[in-house]
Amino acid sequence: MTSATRRRADAERNIEAILDAALARLGRDPSASMTEIAKAAGVGRVTLYGHFPSREELVDTLFDRSLADADAVLGAVDIDAGRADEALARLVRSSWRVLDRQRTVLVVALRVLGPERVRDRHAAVFARLERLLRRGREEGAFSAAAPPGWQATAVYSLMHAAAQEVDEGRLDAAQAAEALVSTILGALGGGPAGTGR
Amino acid sequence: MTSATRRRADAERNIEAILDAALARLGRDPSASMTEIAKAAGVGRVTLYGHFPSREELVDTLFDRSLADADAVLGAVDIDAGRADEALARLVRSSWRVLDRQRTVLVVALRVLGPERVRDRHAAVFARLERLLRRGREEGAFSAAAPPGWQATAVYSLMHAAAQEVDEGRLDAAQAAEALVSTILGALGGGPAGTGR
DNA sequence: GCTAACCCGAACAATGGTGTTCGAGTTGGG
DNA sequence: CCCAACTCGAACACCATTGTTCGGGTTAGC
To answer: Tell me: domain B1-53, CATH 1.10.10, correct?
Structure first.
């Protein structure tokens, strides 16, 4: 398994620390410097370049990891079970924070890697949500008045907004999930009947 | 009137061009260089510095102008007339594009001017929307389940998402307004009764 | 305990952005 | 028509960032 890239334990630990620090710093400021990231990771700048030959490579790895994270969380939700609106509520509740972190990285990746290399890799994650929305539309749970692509964007954008509000202390994390779910289901036009209370 | 800052006509024209170019370039990339902006404005770099002594000053002016724009458009809508949901629909229809441009500048201003100097100036524009939401809540047109601050953020964030989708060609500008209004009213929990079709 | 893998500070060249100065040319407005 | 206002390219010093090299020190793992 790990025989191909046999690394020493401390190296592995540092790589983790670097990626975590990169996520945090780049999330706040997409143009954060390598020096800044290295310092935040508690690591020398040379060490950083030892593991990631360039800024581009670092962002690329970070993007991959964040994509895999999102995919894992999304995959853990049984999207096809039950009514579509209930499935969406489960999905939102379990993954809005991860999905937002993923979006944070996306902003950086767009700058560093360019739009082309980002779109298709990102589309894979997005597709899960769109499939669920399509099912809900067919079941009549979601409104067919608005374009499906727009609805997916709206859901995504609301999850991001909620995460940001929580991050900046303007919204209580506990009540955020409920507010988010009810707002999203409303936005999709399911009406109060399906949502219940 | 214009006696205080008596400028020549070509200077005035260049200043306009610079601000327009700055809006466009900085909107796409918040760290766009002065050289880039000058070139986009069809103006020499020296001329740019002649009118705006520093990058900070340029962003500051741009921020002011964009805030004034937004305020003007918002002010032109009669917020207190009719039902709250209808008033909101009017507001959204007439100002989502301007309001999004305003948000674009806000991102840049946050980086360059710092959060403190931005918040209060920005709050003035935001307040109009919040007041309308409060009225709608009292009238029962909007749900009281979610926090009011969150609802305002949600509306704002949806307007931004729609503008971005249109900018990137994924959503038709003509149908965007309708989709946006129905999504926003739904998100606020008005239910399908108030919205009609 | 030995060796290879790893860490790291210092110093390097290269690049690109900022803000300024100079000097010559162009243009608006009275 | 004439002058002040304005434009602009070139070149400047300054600074931050990127990515590299060197050389000595530490540590994991067998």
So the answer is: yes
Is the pTM here over 0.70, yes or no?
Answer: yes
Contacts 24+ apart (CB under 8 A), B162-166: B162/A150, B162/B96, B162/B100, B163/B96, B163/B97, B163/B100, B163/B101, B164/B100, B165/A149, B165/A150, B165/A153
- Among all chains, which residue has been given the structure tokens 């009719």? B82
Q: What is the pLDDT along chain B (197 residues), one digit of tens a residue?
A: 444 467 899 999 999 999 999 999 999 899 999 999 999 999 999 999 999 999 999 999 999 999 999 999 999 999 999 999 999 999 999 999 998 888 889 989 998 888 888 888 888 888 899 999 999 999 999 999 999 999 999 999 999 999 999 988 999 998 999 999 999 999 998 654 333 33
Residue of A nearest to B155 (CA): A158
For chain A, give every domain's residue range.
1-53, 55-188
Architecture of domain A55-188 in CATH? Orthogonal Bundle (1.10)
Q: Is the CB of A45 under 7 A from strand D?
A: yes
Q: Which chain D positions come under 7 Å from a protein C-beta?
A: 5-11, 16-23, 27-29
